[in-house]
Each structure stands twice: as structure tokens, then as C-alpha cells.
Amino acid sequence: MTLSHSAAYDLMNRKLTSIFSLSDKEKQAIQSLPIQLTPFRTDQDIVRVGERPSRSFLLAEGFTCVYKLTSEGRRQIVAFHVPGDMPDLHSLHLKVMDTSMATVTPCTIGFIAHEALHDLCGRYPRIAAALWRETLVDASIFREWMTGIGRRESYSRMAHLLCEFFTRLDAVGLTQDHGFTLPITQVELADAIGVSTVHVNRVLQELRADGLIQTVGAQVNIPDWERLKEAADFDPLYLHLRQDAPACL
Amino acid sequence: MTLSHSAAYDLMNRKLTSIFSLSDKEKQAIQSLPIQLTPFRTDQDIVRVGERPSRSFLLAEGFTCVYKLTSEGRRQIVAFHVPGDMPDLHSLHLKVMDTSMATVTPCTIGFIAHEALHDLCGRYPRIAAALWRETLVDASIFREWMTGIGRRESYSRMAHLLCEFFTRLDAVGLTQDHGFTLPITQVELADAIGVSTVHVNRVLQELRADGLIQTVGAQVNIPDWERLKEAADFDPLYLHLRQDAPACL
DNA sequence: CGGATCGTTGAGTTGTATCAAGACGGGTGG
DNA sequence: CCACCCGTCTTGATACAACTCAACGATCCG
User: Fold this and answer.
1) Of B117, B89, B129, whose CA–CA distance to A92 is shortest?
2) CA atoms A132, A68, A141, A7: torsion sign
3) Average pLDDT of each block of 10 consecutive residues along chain A (249 residues)?
């Protein structure tokens, strides 16, 4: 929780300029956004369904998830977010939250007033486009997850989620050479891929037995990226990362 | 296929002004967009995964779907679109298509060049916001479907899809008092809710037996909206329709 | 009338859920 | 510093939702 404001702006600028090259003036406009850094503990709600937030947020440190509950109390996690993401941008134009968002690890969250973002978008159409694009990538990930939940078996879905984490964390420099830290419980993995926790446990064991992953605590190693990718039916196209970025490893 | 250009503009204007009230100048800017109306037959692809389209489209007549295929050839339909929708707006900022889109009935489609839309968005931030919002509503629907596929049983999912169709068609005036025409095969319903066609058939029979729907050909009647809604766990919030719009019936 | 598409039905199979219980591990308080 | 506790992970046994395969009926249309 020792993150500085300038580091947060760096994250945001790096993200937004990863596709659109912004001018110095546009970058300065971003740097001068008022941003309110706030620490969160694990398993805290950041926004809840039904609320009408007046600010969005940048995830500066930690992992968060977006989830919905059915009337029977079952939870579906529809997205995870990693440092550098702005999970809540849709609240800029959709008044009422249709999901809740929560931390899954301790986090540092930078809140930015909608007013400031609207103002920025009005003055700099290219920044508006970059933010819009962020929300479109989120939507693309929803489509991919839906395809997995609807049409792939759980083994493949689990492998797919691990591929996605590795790729997204790699894009923000949070991987080691063939591995990454995944501080997410099996309960959360279950809610994300739409199976029971018992089954997540068994699928993970299968993946380990098949030599597709190795785990030590929260550390996940991928000894053979190509084989995991194949098991997962993973094609990183849907993440819409910049073209020059290596599809990792 | 006798739709006029002015009718297509009307659709677009009605949609975009349903939330944001646009000025006359903004409306005129929309009217003067070059739009190319094209007829499509059933089961034709409009855009395919991997393509880099240079135009988006307005669905003027008919129903379309957005789908993905797994490497094993299984199909997941991740969205349906109804007249008035602009299903392809995300291609404005995501260069490569990560899904394919196809007609499920005969359709009239109005193509609009990206260039013209980018120009419009640059000059009229409120129109940009309205288009952005369209894509956010799509994303919200993805989240709701994912929750259904992951955490609701098939009976409930089928009911939910019917509720959604009724509500969305009602919003564009395409319902009769307690019913609507659903020209979608059981194969397509199966690919949308992530089950087999055999199972779709059985679930529909259950819904009929329970008195939640009545069907005559492609016509679906809903004798008791409240009961269907309850079976579906349906809350129209996620559609983000304008507040004054009645939650139908 | 034949062919194609779509809907329906039955029988056997399988992936995944549920329930229940035990093992592990890290933190807290006595 | 140990005992306890709670959350997490693991394992086994049983149950069920949904799948697959296969065949048959109903339309529609050229």
C-alpha cells in the first residue's frame, strides 16, 4: 500500500497509450486528473449492484472481481481485473450498477470523479476513444468467457482462465519467466468458471497430473505454454492487446 | 425489404435519443450520415471473426446473432440483436473481429462507414457518448447471460431469454399485447443458452406444461408475465432501458 | 412427390453437483 | 507457546441435470 500518485498515473497512461498514441497535451490532461488513492482489504465490496456511483476507479494494486448473484444466492464472477485496469468505466454512461465489484486481495484503488472524466472526454476525443476501447475489451472478454462456460468443458475452461491470467499479467509486467502469482481461492475460481469448488479442486489436480501446471501455494508455473494453450483452446486475439506485444513466452 | 432510408434514420435517432436528448443539430448530423441499406437472407454471415471491417451496421429489419466457435466446432451464440440495434459498434475501436455475426432471419442492414462515425463522434461528443452507451448495454447483457449460463439451470435460462426478448421487442414496438413473434429455431436457442437442441425441446415443453408460455408456430404468448419473470429470475435492470419505460405489460 | 429443415421422443451415458467428513495451515487469544 | 479456530483444500460416495445417439413425425416448398 505504498503506491504513489505518480505511479498510478503512469499505469493509466501506459494503458491508454498502449494502442492510441496520445499527445503530450493529452498525457498532461490525464496527469492532472484528481485521483483519490484508497486502500482496501480482501473481500470488500467496492461498488454494489443498484448503486449510482459518481466516480469510476483505476485498480492500482491487487486483484478485483465483478460478480452477480442469482435470486437463489449463487454467485457468478463475470470478470477479474488486474493492476492497470479500470473496471468501472461503464458507470460513466450506465447510471445504475448492474453488478457488484469486490476485492479478492488487498488492493489500492484510485477513484476518479465521473465529472472529471466526462470533462476530459469532451475536450479530448482521443482519450474518450481510448477509454471507450477499454470497455470494449472488457466486453470481448465477456464473450470469450461465455463461450467457455456454454460450450467448453470445465478442464478446458480452467486452463483457459490460467492462460488469460498469464497473458494479462504479462502485459503489465507481473509475471516471472514461466509463472505468476495467482492469489485467488478455489471458491472464486469456481464462481468464475461456473462449477462447484469440489470440481475446481479435481480439475486442478488433473491439470497438475497432466503436467500442464505446477503450483506452490499461490504460485502457478506453466512448464509448457503451447500444451496449456491447446488444452485451453486459447487464442489471445480476444484480449486485443497491441499487435507488437508477444503472445508471451 | 421495402424499408426506406428515412425509416432507418428514424430507428437510429429513436434509439440514440431514448436516453440522451440530442439537439436538432445533432439529429441532423445523424440524418446526413451516408447509410447503405442491404438485404440479407437467412443464415448469412455479415462479418466474420478475424476480419477488419471498415464499417459498422444498423439492423433495420430482422434478427441477427453474434457467435463464436470453439476449436471443436461447437457454437456459442453470445447475443441476439433486434431491429434498431447497432451490433457492430465495437469494431470502431477494436480493429480485428473476435466474433462473427450472422442473420437468423431475412434482414435489412444499413452499413455506415467507420470514417463517417469517427468524424461524427469527434464533432459531437454527445453522440459519441450515446454510441458508447449502446456498446455498454451490450456488455451488460453479456454479463447477465454469463450469470445464467454459469449459475442458473436450463429451465430458468430459457425463461430468461424469452423475458429478455419480450422486453427488448416491446421497447421497439414489436410485440402484440401478451406475445411476440420469435423466428428463431431451437438449434439457435440451444446455442444461445448453452445446452443441446434436444434439451431445448424438452425445456420448452416443460414451460408450456407449466403454463408459462403458449406457442403457435413462431408466435410466443405469455399468459402470466409475473410467473414467467419469477421462473426466469428476470430483472430488467440490466437492459438499462429508460426509466419511464414500463417494465412491460 | 421427394427432399430438406425443423421439431419430437426414447434409452443409455456422463459430467458435474451435492453432501459429508477429514486434513492442512495460518492467525489469535489465553 | 500452545490450543484452538476458521477458512481453505482435499477426498469419497451418491444423485441428477443434461448429453449423445438414433430414429421418427411434421411441415414446407420446388
Assistant:
1) B129
2) positive
3) 75 84 91 94 96 97 97 97 97 97 96 97 94 98 98 98 97 93 97 98 97 94 97 97 58
Tell me the per-residue pLDDT of B149-207, one tens digit each, with 9 for 90 and over.
Answer: 999 999 999 999 999 999 999 999 999 989 999 999 999 999 999 999 999 999 999 99
- The conformation of residue B141, written as its DSSP 8-state character, comes to H
Tell me the CA distances in angstroms from A156 to A227, B34, B102, B198, one per residue in order.
12, 45, 27, 24
Cβ contact B151–A194 (<8 Å): yes
- A98 and B74: CB-CB below 8 Å? no
* Residue with the three cell numbers 478475424: B50
Classify residue A41 by burial, with Cβ atoms within 10 Å: 0-12, 13-18, 19+.
exposed
B40-53 pLDDT tens trace = 999 999 999 999 99
Residues of chain B with Cβ-Cβ distance to A152 below 8 Å are 70, 74
pLDDT at A15: 84
Helix intervals (H) in chain B = 5-16, 24-31, 114-123, 125-151, 154-171, 186-193, 197-209, 225-232
Cβ distance of B135 and A140 shorter than 8 Å: no
What's the Rg (C-alpha) of chain A? 18
- pTM value surpassing 0.90: yes
Look up the protein residue whose alpha carbon has the minimum distance to the C1' of C19: A198
- pLDDT, position A249: 45
Summarised one tens digit per residue, pLDDT across range A195-240 is 999 999 999 999 999 999 999 989 999 999 999 999 999 999 999 9
- In this structure, which amino acid lies at residue A222? I
**b/e for A192-215, b at 16 or more Cβ within 10 A?**
bbbbeeebbeebbebbeeeebbee
Tell me which residue in A132, A142, A150 faces B93 most closely, judged by beta carbons.
A132
Q: Which residues 198-227 of chain A have a CB under 7 Å from nucleic chain D?
A: 198, 201-202, 204-205
| Strand C within 7 A of B158 CB | no
Cα–Cα distance between A213 and B217 in angstroms, integer?
A: 51
Where helices occur in chain A by DSSP H, the ranges are 5-16, 24-31, 114-123, 125-151, 154-171, 186-193, 197-209, 225-232
In sequence order, the 6+-apart residues with CB closer than 8 A to the CB of A115 are A54
Name the strands in the sheet holding A179-181, side by side, starting at the edge strand that comes first in the sequence. Answer: A179-181, A219-221, A214-216
Whole-angstrom distance, CA of residue A65 vs CA of residue A61 = 13
Task: State residue A59's pLDDT score.
Answer: 96
CA–CA gap between residue A137 and residue B248 (Å, rounded): 32
